[in-house]
Write a structure and sequence with these properties.
203 residues, mainly beta, seven-stranded parallel beta sheet, four-stranded parallel beta sheet, 1 helix, 16 strands, globular
Length: 203
């Protein structure tokens, strides 16, 4: 068993958010042109892009992302967004237990709805899935999932892109699992499916 709870809220998921670099031109006094310098901008990027086979591992997590409203995803693998033509990925062979939350339960009123919670996605495995993924032989059990917005056992949100399909095979939402949302959609396997473009494929 891999116990990620020992890291507390320091464990932000595989493919966790990190700053994106942007190139800016820096000019000295009296210089007509500058030199390009890379710096961190204000956006965040959380995107796991690889095949993953757990070899039967049990992964225990106790992830709390409620401390920052600017963080939209709480899940073991954050978001899966690669839509590069010809690429597809498989995630298989593991069990997730524990808890994941994007809700500030210490707030006086825990009710979020409408645009305030729409972007939020919380799940055991993946937040937002946009690229072509296969999920196989994955079990979620003994798990508490609490979302400010969309929530699901495997993924909170699927947003299909043209020509790409998504497969769930032998995935189980097992005993002692509870999935709650305070302002979005909720589902056992997937919380919500929305259309990314007019020619989106199926699931």
């Amino acid at each position: 068993e891999y116990d990620m709870s020992v890291y507390g809220r320091g464990f932000r998921g595989l493919g966790a958010s990190y700053g994106m670099f942007e190139s800016i031109m820096v000019k000295g006094a009296g210089e007509a042109s500058g030199v390009p310098v890379d710096r961190l901008n204000d956006t965040f990027y959380s995107d796991f892009r690889a095949n993953f086979h757990g070899n039967g591992a049990v992964i225990h997590m106790e992830t709390d992302r409620s401390y920052d409203d600017g963080i939209h995803t709480a899940a073991l693998f954050n978001d899966l967004l690669d839509t590069t033509t010809g690429r597809s990925y498989t995630m298989s062979g593991f069990t997730v237990t524990g808890s994941v939350s994007s809700v500030n339960k210490n707030a006086s009123v825990v009710t979020d709805s409408g645009n305030d919670s729409y972007a939020n996605r919380t799940a055991a495995v993946a937040g937002l899935v946009r690229g072509p993924w296969t999920f196989e032989n994955i079990t979620v059990k003994d798990m508490l999932i609490e979302a400010k917005g969309n929530a699901g056992g495997i993924t909170a949100w699927i947003e299909p892109v043209s020509g790409q399909t998504y497969t769930f095979k032998e995935c189980v939402i097992g005993e002692n699992t509870r999935i709650d949302t305070y302002g979005g959609s909720v589902g056992g396997v997937a919380g919500v499916i929305t259309q990314h473009d007019s020619n989106a494929a199926g699931v």
